[in-house]
Amino acid sequence: MKTPAFLEKLKKYSLSSIIRVGCIVGLFLMLVILTIQGQSHWYIALALSLGLLAALCINFFVRKLAVKSAIYALEYILLMIYSVLFEAGMLSTIYSLILVDFYLNNSLKSNVVFGGLSYLSYVLSIVARAVLFDPGWASVAASLAVAVNELIIFSLVFTIANMLNAIVKKTAEAEKNLEAVYAREKKLQEANEYLKQAAKLEERNRIAKQIHDTTGHSITTIIMQTEAAKLLFDSDPPEAKRKIVSANLQAISALEELRKSVRVLSGEYTPFDLSASLEKAINETVEGTDIAIRAKTENLDVDENTAFFLYSSLKEGLNNGIRHGNSTAFLFELKKKDGKIFFLLSDNGKGAKDFKEGFGLRTMREGAEKLGGTASFITAEGEGMEIRIELPVREKGESHD
């Protein structure tokens, strides 16, 4: 159901403003009636009415209590003059309406004081009229009786105005709290968006560094291996073949890493299958070569970072053994035991007397440490190479601290 147009316009104004306008309109109508009741002295009644109306309107825009009090005093003087000169039955309502604006902007204690003074001013004005125009205790008593009856009007306006005052304050407080909530929500959204952008930028920088370091290193190695194979092609065909096989493995590894990086940068997500990837790496190594690999692996349900690290470590270990150790046979084991993942890759290569970590093995060790584990490399001259990795088991979806 569509909200009426006039209600939509009312939403633009506060409740206090609407009440003030209502008071001005109500007072204006009453003053028109009082002016008409002035009869032959209507011009005096009109002047007093216009003075009251002007004072009320001015008081709506004044915020200092001292100035407002002075204007209220002027209004009560005008009302006392009016009540003394003219007999009217709506003076109690006018007295009460004049204080509505004060009721809406002050505490209950202040409202009680000013409300009491307003009522006292009204009582004095009608008693003064009785004394001037109809001296005697009977007239004064009758005026006091009227004042007691009119106390109902004062009390009713006082009660309604203070209830409205409480509603206005609670509404203003609720609106302030709501604005604060909206402001906090906006800041949270901005912070969340900033974190998302920062995370994207960090991921892109990481991938860019990975492409530069890993893929760039792989391509350099491929070039060196193929150049060496060309030089050995006639003099040592078996060695040239090993160089070509090593370069091929390095190219496959680099291509796989590059494809993964491109998928991440483009926003695509393809679940990484560890078992299938390990099997593929082994098949690509032994296919069309004299290299043998004996593998004993378990199906591990681990997070993607761990899975890709294990896959990359196998490829790096195979490539390292073929390229540097002239290995022709490997033993690969992957299992889970006592809350840990155990990775073992050993080869029958020539080993090394003075072993130093190269780029690939250093990257492997640092990667294991990032995942909360360790990587160790055991070798001796003529004894081949053994790579041992231990990682804590983390299921899919579990974060790395």
Describe this structure as you would to a colleague.
With 401 residues, the chain is α+β, with helices and mostly antiparallel strands. The chain folds into two domains: 5-173, no CATH class; 272-401, Heat Shock Protein 90. 70% of the residues lie in helices and 9% in strands. The protein is built from twelve helices and five strands. The chain has helices at residues 5-10, 15-37, 42-61, 65-85, 91-98, 100-103, 108-133, 137-232, 237-265, 274-286, 304-325, 359-370, and strands at 292-297, 329-337, 340-347, 374-379, 385-392. The chain has a five-stranded mixed beta sheet, covered by helices on one side. Helix 2 packs antiparallel against helix 3, helix 3 (42-61) runs antiparallel to helix 4 and helix 10 (274-286) runs parallel beside helix 11. The chain starts with a helix and ends in a 9-residue tail after the last strand. The model has no long low-confidence stretch (mean pLDDT 78).
How is the secondary structure organized here?
Blueprint: H1 5-10, H2 15-37, H3 42-61, H4 65-85, H5 91-98, H6 100-103, H7 108-133, H8 137-232, H9 237-265, H10 274-286, E1 292-297, H11 304-325, E2 329-337, E3 340-347, H12 359-370, E4 374-379, E5 385-392
Parallel strand pairs: 1-2
Antiparallel strand pairs: 2-3, 3-5, 4-5
